[in-house]
Every structure is written in C-alpha cells, then in structure tokens.
Amino acid sequence: MLRLILLRHAQAAAQAGGGDSERPLTLAGRAEARLMGDYLADEHLTPDLAVVSIARRTRETLKLALDVAGAHPHILEEPRLYLAETPALLDLMLMTPSPVRRLLCVGHNPGFHDYALQMISSGDSEARIHLQNGLPTAGLIVIDFDAVRWEDVQVGSGRLERFITPDDLR
C-alpha cells in the first residue's frame, strides 16, 4: 500500500514585498501548521519523503509541522509544485521512487483540492462529502493506493483514508 498525504499551506499574509511566492505565514497560520504537525505525530503519519512547493508559505508550513512532529524525512523543494494543477501533480507523484511508501506533498489550492477529488474513488463517505466543500488552509488529505509502485497509481484508484482540517482539531 502507498499513502499520499496532501497538506495545503497554512494561512498566509495577503501580500508580500517579493510577490505571491514570498507571502509568509500569519500568526494564525503558524499555529495551524503546528497543530497539523501535532496531528501528524499523534496519528503516526510521518512521511518517508516530503515534497514542497518553492513558495515561502509552503516551506514554512512544512518546517513548522515537521519540527512539531519530530519528523526528519528527506525534503525536496519542487518548483513544479508551485500552484500546480492535476496533470503536474500526477506526474510528480508517478515519479516518486519505489522505496517511498508515505509521500507528503505541501502545496496550494485549487490544485490540491481538484487533484484529491480526481484521485479518490472510495473511502469514508462523510469525509468525502466534507472534502467536496473545499480544502481550507492547513487542510490534510490522506489517500491510500493499493499499489506497490507509484508509477502504477492511476486517477480514481485512491481511497480517502481521512480528511482533517484545523477546525476539526480545535
């Protein structure tokens, strides 16, 4: 079984001097990232590999979450993950090395939300309905695939294992 963990970046400032990619997390966003890091640790969802967008808000979200979780996976900053849509997200996932069993991606909407909806075909019905309503900042989606290699994963072959938001944990 392969496990894909999608984490949308936490709440970020509306603007930054360096443009969209340089928007930092707000104080509330930093708290969201730490909360999700606690959840990752408590639920044993620490990844083998973390792939993160080059945007400042995604890198900060990942760092805070992993620091709180006490996790130290290999981290790959991926420029193609910045504001990526489904085709790019699928390509990146399919290129994941076989030894990786738990892949964490930290990125953006609307790409992550659309991608998750396209990848799942089964799973907890309440969580699927909840996910239909959107993916808020620091929302966490866990999708399991009955596959041995990432390159064998197909659109619609995933099972939504869970969907958790910071509001669900408060």
Task: Report what the structure shows.
The protein is an alpha/beta fold. 35% of the residues lie in helices and 22% in strands. It has six helices and seven strands. The chain has helices spanning 27-42, 56-69, 86-94, 111-119, 125-132, 166-169, and strands spanning 2-8, 49-52, 74-77, 102-107, 120-123, 140-145, 158-164. The protein has a seven-stranded mixed sheet with strand order 3-2-4-1-6-7-5. Helix 1 (27-42) crosses helix 2 (56-69) and helix 3 (86-94) crosses helix 4 (111-119). The longest helix has 16 residues, at 27-42. The radius of gyration is 15 Å and the shape is globular. It starts with a strand and ends with a helix. The model has no long low-confidence stretch (mean pLDDT 96).
Summarize the structure.
The protein has helices at 27-42, 56-69, 86-94, 111-119, 125-132, 166-169; strands at 2-8, 49-52, 74-77, 102-107, 120-123, 140-145, 158-164. The protein has 170 residues and is of the alpha/beta class.
Could you describe the largest sheet, including whether it forms a barrel?
7 strands, mixed
Structural class, from secondary structure content?
Answer: alpha/beta
Low-confidence stretches: none
Order of SSEs: EHEHEHEHEHEEH
Report mean pLDDT, rounded to a whole number.
96
The strand order across the widest sheet is 3-2-4-1-6-7-5
The gyration radius over C-alpha positions equals 15 Å
Q: Roughly how much helix do the residues carry, as a percent range? A: 25-40%
Task: Considering the chains and any ligands shown, give keywords for the structure.
7 strands; 170 residues; 6 helices
